[in-house]
Amino acid sequence: MRMGCSCCAGLSRRHFLGMGLGAAALGLAPVAFAAGGDSEFMLLSCMDPRLVHEVHEQMEARRLRGEYSQVALAGGPAAAVAPAFQKWQYAVWENLGATIKLHSIKRVFGLTHLDCSAVKIAYGEGAVSTPERERGTHLSILRAFRLQVTKRHPTLGVETGIMSLNGSIEMIG
Ligand SMILES: [Zn+2]
């Protein structure tokens, strides 16, 4: 395994240090100090590599560049509500709280996607075994997500959607 190899780990560290120096040389502020400036919303989406580009394309198409902060975790909104992902939930809600404070967001947008392995892991094969069941599972994840957001941040707007593998988004709720 690459992760367990000390020589590669050393190379990796040097690589990242090099990147850091490069950023400093270009006059880029470290991420921690780059915060500030209001954003319209936080996007919570899945980390699935098949859809990373599509998610950004959808935001671009809506002229939302620079208008949102983003948290990407396996399952997206499922990471915030699935009992199987309980250990991740603290990170989701803490990050939401942080972007409310740092960027004055007004809404959160929870985006799941079809054929999501994380949803399968969290809810079982049976929950996604037919298109109808899969849709029902996503509707219930997104409903639970909307409830959790409203419970924690009553004044925050919450929107949810399901992305298809072709990148189109169906808004839900
Ligand atoms: Zn996924």
Topology:
Blueprint: H1 6-25, H2 31-34, E1 41-45, H3 52-61, E2 68-72, H4 77-81, H5 86-103, E3 107-113, H6 117-123, H7 131-152, E4 157-163, E5 169-172
Parallel strand pairs: 1-2, 1-3, 3-4
Antiparallel strand pairs: 4-5
Shape: globular
Mean pLDDT, as a whole number? 84
What is the CA-atom radius of gyration, in angstroms?
Answer: 18 Å
Number of E-type strands: 5
The fold-level CATH name of the largest domain is Beta-carbonic Anhydrase, Chain A
Q: Total number of helical segments?
A: 7
Q: Note the beta-strand portion.
A: 15-25%
Model regions low in confidence, pLDDT < 50 over at least 5 residues: 1-35
Order of helices and strands: HHEHEHHEHHEE
Strand order, biggest sheet? 2-1-3-4-5
Helix content: 40-55%
Question: What is the number of domains?
Answer: 2
Sheet having the most strands = 5 strands, mixed
Distance between the termini: 44 Å
The CATH architecture name of the largest domain reads 3-Layer(aba) Sandwich
Ligand inventory reads:
zinc ion
Given the helix and strand composition, which structural class is it? alpha/beta
Supply the CATH superfamily name of the largest domain.
Carbonic anhydrase
CATH class bucket of the largest domain: Alpha Beta
Folded structure, characterized:
The protein is α/β, with parallel strands linked by helices. Helix content is 50%, strand content 16%. It has helices at 6-25, 31-34, 52-61, 77-81, 86-103, 117-123, 131-152; strands spanning 41-45, 68-72, 107-113, 157-163, 169-172. The chain has a 5-stranded mixed beta sheet with strand order 2-1-3-4-5, covered by helices on one side. The radius of gyration is 18 Å and the shape is globular. The structure holds zinc ion. Residues 46, 48, 75, 113, 116-118 line the site of zinc ion. Zinc ion is lined by residues 46, 48, 75, 113, 116-118.
